[in-house]
Protein backbone atom coordinates (compact mmCIF):
# COMPACT_ATOMS: atom_id res chain seq x y z
CA UNK A 1 0.00 0.00 0.00
CA UNK A 2 1.33 3.45 -0.89
CA UNK A 3 2.30 5.81 1.89
CA UNK A 4 -0.41 8.37 2.62
CA UNK A 5 0.73 12.01 3.00
CA UNK A 6 -0.28 13.77 6.19
CA UNK A 7 -2.44 16.85 6.02
CA UNK A 8 -3.12 20.09 7.84
CA UNK A 9 -6.39 21.90 7.23
CA UNK A 10 -7.94 25.12 8.49
CA UNK A 11 -11.46 23.94 9.31
CA UNK A 12 -13.29 27.26 9.68
CA UNK A 13 -16.58 27.61 11.49
CA UNK A 14 -19.32 24.98 11.10
CA UNK A 15 -20.88 27.09 8.34
CA UNK A 16 -18.01 26.06 6.07
CA UNK A 17 -20.25 23.19 4.98
CA UNK A 18 -23.03 25.53 3.80
CA UNK A 19 -21.34 28.76 2.70
CA UNK A 20 -20.13 29.09 -0.87
CA UNK A 21 -16.43 29.78 -0.26
CA UNK A 22 -13.08 28.75 -1.78
CA UNK A 23 -12.26 26.91 1.45
CA UNK A 24 -15.37 24.76 1.12
CA UNK A 25 -14.58 24.04 -2.53
CA UNK A 26 -11.06 22.98 -1.57
CA UNK A 27 -12.27 20.56 1.09
CA UNK A 28 -14.78 19.07 -1.34
CA UNK A 29 -11.91 18.37 -3.76
CA UNK A 30 -9.55 17.03 -1.13
CA UNK A 31 -10.14 13.33 -1.70
CA UNK A 32 -8.82 13.72 -5.24
CA UNK A 33 -5.43 14.91 -3.99
CA UNK A 34 -4.45 11.81 -2.04
CA UNK A 35 -4.94 8.03 -2.24
CA UNK A 36 -8.08 6.79 -0.55
CA UNK A 37 -7.14 5.91 3.04
CA UNK A 38 -8.30 2.82 4.84
CA UNK A 39 -8.76 4.90 8.01
CA UNK A 40 -8.28 8.44 9.33
CA UNK A 41 -6.58 9.66 12.50
CA UNK A 42 -7.50 13.28 13.15
CA UNK A 43 -6.25 15.77 15.72
CA UNK A 44 -8.79 18.56 16.19
CA UNK A 45 -8.05 21.79 18.03
CA UNK A 46 -11.47 21.38 19.70
CA UNK A 47 -10.55 18.13 21.47
CA UNK A 48 -8.47 19.31 24.42
CA UNK A 49 -7.13 17.10 27.21
CA UNK A 50 -4.24 17.07 29.63
CA UNK A 51 -1.64 14.99 27.81
CA UNK A 52 -2.72 13.01 24.77
CA UNK A 53 -5.92 10.98 24.66
CA UNK A 54 -7.26 8.61 22.01
CA UNK A 55 -10.96 8.01 21.37
CA UNK A 56 -11.83 4.31 21.36
CA UNK A 57 -15.55 4.81 20.69
CA UNK A 58 -16.70 2.39 17.95
CA UNK A 59 -19.68 4.58 17.02
CA UNK A 60 -19.00 8.25 17.76
CA UNK A 61 -21.95 10.60 17.95
CA UNK A 62 -22.05 14.32 17.18
CA UNK A 63 -20.90 17.37 19.12
CA UNK A 64 -22.43 20.69 18.08
CA UNK A 65 -19.80 22.79 19.83
CA UNK A 66 -20.94 26.17 18.53
CA UNK A 67 -23.73 28.68 18.91
CA UNK A 68 -25.58 31.20 16.79
CA UNK A 69 -25.36 29.38 13.47
CA UNK A 70 -28.06 28.26 11.02
CA UNK A 71 -30.47 25.65 12.44
CA UNK A 72 -29.65 23.08 9.76
CA UNK A 73 -26.10 22.80 11.06
CA UNK A 74 -27.44 21.35 14.31
CA UNK A 75 -29.24 18.63 12.38
CA UNK A 76 -26.24 17.40 10.39
CA UNK A 77 -24.85 13.96 11.17
CA UNK A 78 -21.56 12.43 10.09
CA UNK A 79 -22.06 8.72 10.78
CA UNK A 80 -18.53 7.45 10.14
CA UNK A 81 -17.54 4.55 12.40
CA UNK A 82 -14.76 4.65 14.92
CA UNK A 83 -12.12 1.93 15.08
CA UNK A 84 -11.21 0.52 18.49
CA UNK A 85 -8.58 -1.62 16.76
CA UNK A 86 -6.83 1.36 15.18
CA UNK A 87 -7.24 3.34 18.41
CA UNK A 88 -5.39 0.57 20.19
CA UNK A 89 -2.58 0.77 17.64
CA UNK A 90 -2.40 4.55 18.14
CA UNK A 91 -2.20 4.10 21.92
CA UNK A 92 0.52 1.50 21.46
CA UNK A 93 2.66 3.80 19.31
CA UNK A 94 2.20 6.77 21.63
CA UNK A 95 3.11 4.67 24.66
CA UNK A 96 6.20 3.35 22.89
CA UNK A 97 7.28 6.96 22.36
CA UNK A 98 6.91 7.66 26.10
CA UNK A 99 3.91 9.98 25.69
CA UNK A 100 1.69 8.25 28.29
CA UNK A 101 -1.57 8.25 26.30
CA UNK A 102 -4.98 7.82 27.88
CA UNK A 103 -8.24 6.45 26.46
CA UNK A 104 -11.42 8.41 25.88
CA UNK A 105 -14.08 5.74 25.75
CA UNK A 106 -16.94 7.80 24.38
CA UNK A 107 -16.70 11.09 22.47
CA UNK A 108 -18.56 12.44 19.46
CA UNK A 109 -17.14 14.29 16.47
CA UNK A 110 -16.58 17.99 17.17
CA UNK A 111 -16.86 20.48 14.31
CA UNK A 112 -13.10 20.43 13.75
CA UNK A 113 -13.58 16.79 12.77
CA UNK A 114 -16.99 16.40 11.19
CA UNK A 115 -17.23 19.52 9.04
CA UNK A 116 -14.09 18.95 6.94
CA UNK A 117 -14.72 15.21 6.71
CA UNK A 118 -18.33 15.76 5.65
CA UNK A 119 -17.03 17.79 2.73
CA UNK A 120 -14.04 15.60 1.85
CA UNK A 121 -15.55 12.15 2.42
CA UNK A 122 -19.34 12.64 2.42
CA UNK A 123 -20.06 8.89 2.25
CA UNK A 124 -18.78 8.60 5.85
CA UNK A 125 -17.50 5.12 5.11
CA UNK A 126 -13.92 5.52 6.37
CA UNK A 127 -13.26 4.77 10.07
CA UNK A 128 -12.16 7.81 12.08
CA UNK A 129 -10.10 7.87 15.27
CA UNK A 130 -9.76 11.15 17.17
CA UNK A 131 -6.63 12.22 19.06
CA UNK A 132 -6.50 15.24 21.37
CA UNK A 133 -4.35 18.33 21.66
CA UNK A 134 -3.01 19.55 24.98
CA UNK A 135 -3.37 23.36 25.14
CA UNK A 136 -0.68 23.50 27.82
CA UNK A 137 1.94 21.77 25.65
CA UNK A 138 4.06 23.36 22.96
CA UNK A 139 4.76 22.78 19.28
CA UNK A 140 7.61 20.37 19.98
CA UNK A 141 5.36 18.12 22.06
CA UNK A 142 2.65 18.00 19.38
CA UNK A 143 5.32 17.34 16.76
CA UNK A 144 6.45 14.36 18.88
CA UNK A 145 2.87 13.04 18.89
CA UNK A 146 2.89 13.17 15.11
CA UNK A 147 6.31 11.54 14.87
CA UNK A 148 5.13 8.69 17.09
CA UNK A 149 2.24 7.97 14.71
CA UNK A 150 4.24 8.35 11.47
CA UNK A 151 4.38 4.56 10.89
CA UNK A 152 0.61 4.57 10.32
CA UNK A 153 1.07 6.37 6.99
CA UNK A 154 2.64 3.20 5.59
CA UNK A 155 -0.43 1.28 6.77
CA UNK A 156 -2.81 3.36 4.67
CA UNK A 157 -3.92 5.73 7.45
CA UNK A 158 -4.49 9.39 6.65
CA UNK A 159 -3.38 11.63 9.50
CA UNK A 160 -5.00 15.05 9.64
CA UNK A 161 -4.27 18.03 11.82
CA UNK A 162 -7.44 20.15 11.90
CA UNK A 163 -6.94 23.63 13.29
CA UNK A 164 -6.41 27.05 11.74
CA UNK A 165 -3.37 28.71 10.27
CA UNK A 166 -4.52 31.97 11.91
CA UNK A 167 -7.10 32.23 14.66
CA UNK A 168 -7.52 35.72 16.07
CA UNK A 169 -11.28 35.70 16.54
CA UNK A 170 -11.12 38.96 18.45
CA UNK A 171 -10.03 40.62 15.21
CA UNK A 172 -12.29 38.61 12.89
CA UNK A 173 -15.68 38.51 14.64
CA UNK A 174 -16.35 42.28 14.83
CA UNK A 175 -15.68 42.53 11.09
CA UNK A 176 -17.79 39.45 10.38
CA UNK A 177 -20.72 40.96 12.27
CA UNK A 178 -20.41 44.24 10.42
CA UNK A 179 -19.48 46.32 13.42
CA UNK A 180 -15.92 47.09 12.44
CA UNK A 181 -13.89 47.75 9.32
CA UNK A 182 -10.98 45.59 8.23
CA UNK A 183 -7.71 46.63 9.87
CA UNK A 184 -5.14 46.72 7.07
CA UNK A 185 -2.29 46.56 9.56
CA UNK A 186 -3.71 43.26 10.84
CA UNK A 187 -4.12 41.98 7.27
CA UNK A 188 -0.42 42.67 6.76
CA UNK A 189 0.41 40.74 9.94
CA UNK A 190 -1.61 37.77 8.69
CA UNK A 191 0.28 37.83 5.40
CA UNK A 192 3.64 38.05 7.15
CA UNK A 193 2.83 35.17 9.49
CA UNK A 194 1.36 32.82 6.90
CA UNK A 195 4.14 33.65 4.46
CA UNK A 196 6.77 32.80 7.06
CA UNK A 197 5.13 29.46 7.75
CA UNK A 198 4.86 28.67 4.03
CA UNK A 199 8.53 29.47 3.50
CA UNK A 200 9.77 27.28 6.35
CA UNK A 201 7.34 24.42 5.73
CA UNK A 202 8.39 24.25 2.08
CA UNK A 203 12.00 23.52 3.03
CA UNK A 204 11.29 21.45 6.13
CA UNK A 205 12.98 23.85 8.55
CA UNK A 206 11.68 21.99 11.58
CA UNK A 207 13.71 23.77 14.23
CA UNK A 208 12.56 27.19 13.10
CA UNK A 209 8.96 26.00 12.93
CA UNK A 210 9.02 24.50 16.40
CA UNK A 211 10.38 27.80 17.68
CA UNK A 212 7.59 29.72 15.93
CA UNK A 213 6.64 31.81 18.95
CA UNK A 214 10.01 33.57 18.93
CA UNK A 215 10.95 33.37 15.24
CA UNK A 216 7.72 33.91 13.31
CA UNK A 217 6.44 37.46 12.77
CA UNK A 218 3.39 38.47 14.83
CA UNK A 219 2.72 35.12 16.54
CA UNK A 220 0.46 36.46 19.29
CA UNK A 221 -1.50 38.69 16.90
CA UNK A 222 -2.33 35.62 14.78
CA UNK A 223 -2.75 33.17 17.66
CA UNK A 224 -3.76 34.77 20.97
CA UNK A 225 -3.90 31.16 22.21
CA UNK A 226 -1.98 28.29 20.67
CA UNK A 227 -4.43 25.38 20.36
CA UNK A 228 -5.51 26.01 16.74
CA UNK A 229 -1.93 25.90 15.45
CA UNK A 230 -0.87 22.76 17.35
CA UNK A 231 -2.49 20.37 14.82
CA UNK A 232 -0.07 21.77 12.22
CA UNK A 233 2.90 20.44 14.15
CA UNK A 234 1.19 17.08 14.57
CA UNK A 235 0.76 16.87 10.79
CA UNK A 236 4.41 17.79 10.19
CA UNK A 237 5.60 15.10 12.59
CA UNK A 238 3.22 12.51 11.13
CA UNK A 239 4.99 12.82 7.78
CA UNK A 240 8.25 11.52 9.22
CA UNK A 241 11.73 12.96 9.22
CA UNK A 242 12.75 15.58 6.65
CA UNK A 243 9.12 16.22 5.72
CA UNK A 244 8.31 19.21 3.55
CA UNK A 245 4.98 20.95 3.20
CA UNK A 246 3.17 22.02 0.06
CA UNK A 247 0.54 24.71 0.51
CA UNK A 248 -2.38 23.23 -1.40
CA UNK A 249 -4.89 25.91 -0.50
CA UNK A 250 -4.80 29.55 0.63
CA UNK A 251 -7.84 31.76 0.96
CA UNK A 252 -8.93 34.50 3.36
CA UNK A 253 -12.09 35.87 4.89
CA UNK A 254 -11.90 39.64 5.38
CA UNK A 255 -8.16 39.33 4.85
CA UNK A 256 -7.85 38.21 8.47
CA UNK A 257 -9.07 34.62 8.75
CA UNK A 258 -6.64 32.45 6.80
CA UNK A 259 -7.64 29.01 5.52
CA UNK A 260 -4.25 27.66 4.43
CA UNK A 261 -3.91 23.89 4.03
CA UNK A 262 -0.80 21.77 3.59
CA UNK A 263 0.13 18.32 2.36
CA UNK A 264 3.31 16.90 3.86
CA UNK A 265 5.58 14.62 1.87
CA UNK A 266 7.89 12.12 3.45
CA UNK A 267 11.56 11.86 2.61
CA UNK A 268 12.61 9.09 0.22
CA UNK A 269 14.76 7.53 2.94
CA UNK A 270 11.79 7.44 5.30
CA UNK A 271 9.82 5.33 2.83
CA UNK A 272 12.51 2.71 2.32
Automatic annotation (TrEMBL):
<dbReference type="GO" id="GO:0008198">
    <property type="term" value="F:ferrous iron binding"/>
</dbReference>
<keyword id="KW-0479">Metal-binding</keyword>
<comment type="similarity">
    <text>Belongs to the DODA-type extradiol aromatic ring-opening dioxygenase family.</text>
</comment>
<keyword id="KW-0560">Oxidoreductase</keyword>
<dbReference type="GO" id="GO:0008270">
    <property type="term" value="F:zinc ion binding"/>
</dbReference>
<dbReference type="InterPro" id="IPR014436">
    <property type="entry name" value="Extradiol_dOase_DODA"/>
</dbReference>
<dbReference type="Pfam" id="PF02900">
    <property type="entry name" value="LigB"/>
</dbReference>
<feature type="domain" description="Extradiol ring-cleavage dioxygenase class III enzyme subunit B">
    <location>
        <begin position="25"/>
        <end position="251"/>
    </location>
</feature>
<dbReference type="InterPro" id="IPR004183">
    <property type="entry name" value="Xdiol_dOase_suB"/>
</dbReference>
<protein>
    <submittedName>
        <fullName>Dioxygenase</fullName>
    </submittedName>
</protein>
<keyword id="KW-0223">Dioxygenase</keyword>
<keyword id="KW-0862">Zinc</keyword>
<dbReference type="GO" id="GO:0016702">
    <property type="term" value="F:oxidoreductase activity, acting on single donors with incorporation of molecular oxygen, incorporation of two atoms of oxygen"/>
</dbReference>
Amino acid sequence: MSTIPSLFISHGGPNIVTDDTPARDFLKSLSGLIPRPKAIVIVSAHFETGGVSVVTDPKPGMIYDFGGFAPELYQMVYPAPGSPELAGRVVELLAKAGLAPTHTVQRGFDHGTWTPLLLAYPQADIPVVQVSVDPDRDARWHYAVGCALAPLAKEGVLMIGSGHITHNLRAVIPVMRGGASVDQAMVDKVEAFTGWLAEHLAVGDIEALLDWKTRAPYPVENHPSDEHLMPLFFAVGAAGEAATGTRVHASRQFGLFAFDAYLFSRSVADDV
